[in-house]
Amino acid sequence: MRKFFVGLIYLLLSLLFLLPFMGIFVKSINLKMWEYVLKSPQTYESLWTTFLVVVITMLINFIIGTPLASFMARENFKGKGIIEFLIILPLIIPTMVSTMGLQFAFIKINLIESILGVAIVHSIATMPYYIQSMRAGYITLNKDYINLGKVLGANSIQRFLKITLPIIYPSFLVGMSLIIIVSLAQYLITFIIGGGQIMTLPILMMPYLVDGGVTNGTVYSVIYVAFTYFLVFLVGRVVKSIYRKREY
């Protein structure tokens, strides 16, 4: 009976997650369209631009979100609830409303139609996910380990790489993966801040889907899924590599 229920769960999950992708993959089987997409310079330009935006977004999240998550997990202070509300505020306010407000500010400081400007907006959209994930990891971290690192003379970077990261590695990897997934899904804010000049993969793909270019759209959809998986896999390998080097 147990094997039956396990098999049933696998079947339901497969239908739920794999069936939609399989439908797109089947429709994308067209050698001429694949040849057109793979020979188009815009395809590789969009992949490179998307990669840069994601990397900068991850760096901003790491620099700002990591210490904030650590502080929120370890400290209790008056007004903590207000800060927690501000952290999740980007999830409550409609994306278009907040982006329109940022657009006027970005025009004044020359960040409009720039990769950095797009990455900053993506950071705002992804920061709540990263902070909440890292905060869950920091809650499980015993302060005695950090204090022991201080006693042994380790600086803050060494303590993070040798003590903190190995312990909260799952939370860190989940947080970075969410940044990649959510960042790649941002079409509207990329279009508004990028002004159509910052050609990420969703910006390139969307017109084919909207205008009824089913074949081209499905080809780009397959590339989109594969590229997302590649970035998540790459982050996991890089973090594991750093962790293993620190062990020796």
Shape: globular
Number of separate helices = 11
Give, in order, the helices and strands. Answer: HHHHHHHHHHH
Q: CATH-wise, what's the superfamily of the domain at 42-64 and 98-247?
A: MetI-like
What is the CATH C-level name of the domain at 42-64 and 98-247?
Mainly Alpha
Annotation, overall tally of beta strands = 0
CATH architecture field of the domain at 42-64 and 98-247: Orthogonal Bundle
CATH topology-level name of the domain at 42-64 and 98-247: MetI-like fold
In what range is the share of β-strand residues?
under 5%
Membrane topology: Multi-pass membrane protein
Family: Belongs to the binding-protein-dependent transport system permease family.
Keywords: Cell inner membrane, Cell membrane, Membrane, Transmembrane, Transmembrane helix, Transport
Pfam families: BPD_transp_1
Topology:
Layout: H1 2-27, H2 31-39, H3 41-74, H4 80-92, H5 95-108, H6 115-139, H7 143-151, H8 156-184, H9 188-194, H10 201-210, H11 214-247
Helix pairs in contact: 1-11, 3-6, 3-8, 3-10, 4-6, 5-9, 6-8, 6-9, 7-8, 8-11, 10-11
Family: Belongs to the binding-protein-dependent transport system permease family.
Protein name: ABC transporter permease subunit
Transmembrane segments: 47-73, 85-105, 111-131, 167-199, 219-239
